[in-house]
Each structure stands twice: as C-alpha cells, then as structure tokens.
Amino acid sequence: MSQLRVRPKADHGLVTEVTPESAGWRHVGFALHRLAAGESLEAETGAREVCLALVSGKARLAIDGEDLGEIGERMSPFEGPPWAAYIPAGGRYAITATTPLELAVCSAPGGPGHRAKLIPPGTHPQIVRGQGSNTRRVTNIMPEDDGSADALLVVEVITPGGNTSSYPPHKHDRDDLPNESYLEETYYHRFNPPQGYGFQRVYTDDRSLDESVLIEDGDVVMVPKGYHPVATLHGYDSYYLNVMAGPHRVWKFHNEPRHAWLFTGLGAPGGPAGGR
C-alpha cells in the first residue's frame, strides 16, 4: 500500500488524522471527525492556527467562550458551498453537532495578529477551472489573498466523473519565490456515489518519488513534494478538501514542462486552467 495514502481508522469519532510528526513534515495538520447529533468536540489551538471546515452537517460553535450559534447548511459535500471558521493560535473552540456532522480540522503553525472569524458560504465565489474533461469547480475557503492567517490555505474542489483535476500536473515544493513556493498538502477525498474511486499520482522530476495511489471515499493523500494530478472515473463525482501550508502563505506553483502544451487554448500556464 502507498505510504502516502491514509485510510480511515474508524467510522465514528476521530476518523483520520495526519500530524506533522506522522507525515514527516513541518507544517500541515489534518483531522476528520464524525459526530452524532449532540456530541461535542472541544480543543485549544496552542501554537497552531485552525480552520474548521464543515464537510457536511450542522453544528453549534463557540470560539473563546463566545457562542456563535448554529452553522452549516449542506448535508453532503456535493450539495453546495461550505461553512467554515478560523481560530488563531492561542484560541479555543467548542463545537456541538446538531445533526450528523463531518468536521475537518485543518491546522498549521500560527502566530499573533489574526482574529477568529466565521467563513460562511459565498465568502469566496466558486470558480470553474479548465474545460472539456479537465473541468472542475473550485471553492476557496481560506485563499492566500484574504490576509486572515499566518500559514493556512484551504480549498475544496468538485470534479465531475470522468474528469481530471490538479491537472495539468503542477508542484509547489521549492522555497524559491517569486518562482515557486514550498507548500505541504493533504487531499481529503470523497466520492458520489460513495462506492466510487479514482487515482492520484504523486511524482517528482527525478522519479525519486513516483506513486500512483488508488483513492476511495474517505481517503487522505499526503503530498510532501512533486506533481499530484487526480483522475476520476465515469459515473462518480469527486470531492476533495485541500490543506496547504509552508514557510510563506503564497501559492506559487510550477507546471510540469512536458505537459505545457496542454495549456494551449486552456489559458496561460499558472492561470485558470492549472492548479487545483
């Protein structure tokens, strides 16, 4: 089995967890919790900043003791835009499910100067990228240009069955601004219907890393470096939640030169056709 694929370890409670220690990197943390109505999760952020992304379900949220009421609308990640919340380092939160809840806890090292906030649907517009069989719908939750965090970048993508995404292949594994930024990344995958599956390849130019990963509903794929395109199968739409973080909160990627011809008619390299 791929060392990059993290399978769900439970159906309830803490379902999946990736820490900097378990991943062997420095920045990105990801955890997925499934809670029944009435169940709660409470935590302090410590030295890390956190984005709570409601993959599905509704919940009551309090940050630093302030009750922010019930948030959440969709009961499936395929039903509409997300609700989310940001909690800076040194904060605390308590979230209580009011329906069955699938909650992603995205984290990265954080510092002072940022404020907690809700991120309701419509905060950032959904973008359609690519065309033909390379079409996908991208919704930023915490993009680089919102100035709201130290390190975290969070985005979700819907890819129709039979389409590719994170394609043409791109990478962001060198701290070489303004040409390329170093960002670790996790992909949390879901499929509709849930028995679907797809494939993700993670590979470097020198092929020192080259893994083709079978992805099924609930899997997490870790991307420590290299290119990382995703392919779906006919009949099964794909959802994934990306968490990225690195030494700079900048998403500057490099497209694989051998596939640069694919941008002809799709937009300039690094533009709307590439990336997520």
From TrEMBL:
GO BP annotations listed: inositol catabolic process
Pfam families in UniProt: KduI
GO molecular function: glucuronate isomerase activity
Signal peptide: none
InterPro entries: Deoxy-glucuronate_isom_IolB (IPR024203), KduI/IolB_isomerase (IPR021120), RmlC-like_jellyroll (IPR014710), RmlC_Cupin_sf (IPR011051)
Alphabetical list of Gene3D superfamilies matching this protein: Jelly Rolls
Keywords: Isomerase
UniProt protein name: 5-deoxyglucuronate isomerase
